[in-house]
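User: My collaborator sent over this chain with a note saying "see what the structure looks like." That's all I know about it. Can you take a look?
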Amino acid sequence: MLIKLQITKYISNIAAPKVMIANSFTNEQIEKLGNSLIYLSQHVGEFTKTKILKLLFLLEESSIKKYGHPFFGVNFQIWKYGPVLNDVYIDLSDDSLSLLGNFIKRSPHNNQEFEAKANFNDDEFSENDIDLMGSIIKFAKHKTAKDLVAYTHGEKSLWRQSAIHYGILESLESQKTSSTDLLIDFSLLFENDSFLKERYSDAVENLHFINH
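Assistant: Without extra context I'll predict from the sequence alone. Here is the result:
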């Protein structure tokens, strides 16, 4: 699949603009995203747009942090309310879902929540993936979307580290900026671990090659 390239907005205190790869999902990525949501929807209670976006990010972050390998291999942008997978945000904001329409649907009892539309298919999941989803479920089961927003904005959060790295934290927190095209920099997880940092870099390079 062709990978679309886009250039981030210029930030005055960054030496040069950063080239980033926009989300152009493969069928395998869509299947994994969709089936992850089916699985999570059955175990974490409240299942709103905001909570979904936070759970997807936590899966990606946890996988990279633990194994040096992405869970989905997708990009999360730095927005005021946290790391956001833009294409999923747009899909969940529409009245009818297209990207994830085969997997989840709006709840007939609450239009702000979603529920599974199909049975979970584990074809795209390893044993480590299932274990990781179990860990995220245990962490998030009794947390609200607001709780997860607070967690992903914490003092040591990757969202905050990335925003500081790009020099946009003040703008985001003062609400002068609500969204950006800049990406969460997962390599910041490995500031003191060169082995996992190199492993993550290799994994990303391999994913880009496979997708292309």
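A starting point for your reply to your collaborator: The two ends are 5 Å apart (CA to CA).
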